[in-house]
Amino acid sequence: MAKVWVDGKPPLRSRDRREEILRLATESGLASVEQLAEWFGVTASTIRRDLARLSESGRLARTYGGAIAVPSWTELSLSQRDTEAHGAKRAIARWAAAQVEPGSSVLLDAGTTVALVARELRTDASLTVTTASIPVLGHVQGRDDITTHCLGGRLRAMSDAFVGPLTEAALDRMSFDAAFLGADGVTSDGGLCEAELEQTRLKELMARRASTVYVLVHAAKLNLRPFRSWARLDGPFTIVTDDEAPADVVAEFRDAGRDLVVVPRESSR
Fold it and tell me: pLDDT per residue over 90-99, tens digit each?
């Protein structure tokens, strides 16, 4: 296995280095921290951070002393994703909840980050919350200051949320001041990636029914394409991510005309 760069040449950018790590792990089956540090001419701590990022996004599986390639993209359940990048998700959720005006009607999508928004909603705000997410319902149930509507349909176990024609039909009778959407990946050309077409169709319809649309994704999901189902949002929307997003990736999104907000992540508990 040849070195990716040699003495006298500048090291790869962090994003490019992670792609090379993924390629090397795929080819060799196992990547050790020490070997990768030597290959790229960086410290072991730098490699560990790279492996953590790749592991967070599901592209590598961590092992003792290194990582192995994930043979194919596999959707993780909601409970499996709950601890991923939790500090980033919590910070994003708190920023998002602060955008909700008292007396407004908001739509909360499925996903772990969006569920945290429901938990962070200010009290005594007289809100109307509509959702297809079971975890969101759990956070808002019993609150006297929130009127709750649930979009029914087929319960999708992996996301713990409703999808399908019945869910879509309910949206036709509603409108919202703001919608908060999740995604498995989002690209600078405006695409939202999900595991199934029913999910992407629902996100497109949700976005059409809201005056303001936010897409909440932690940094590892920027320019991530884990699956082959895509949502294309018709109108403007704001991407909210955390400060682990590489500067070149942030610049790429903004150069493409995307409204992108970067919030400082919080330390994980």
Answer: 999 999 999 9
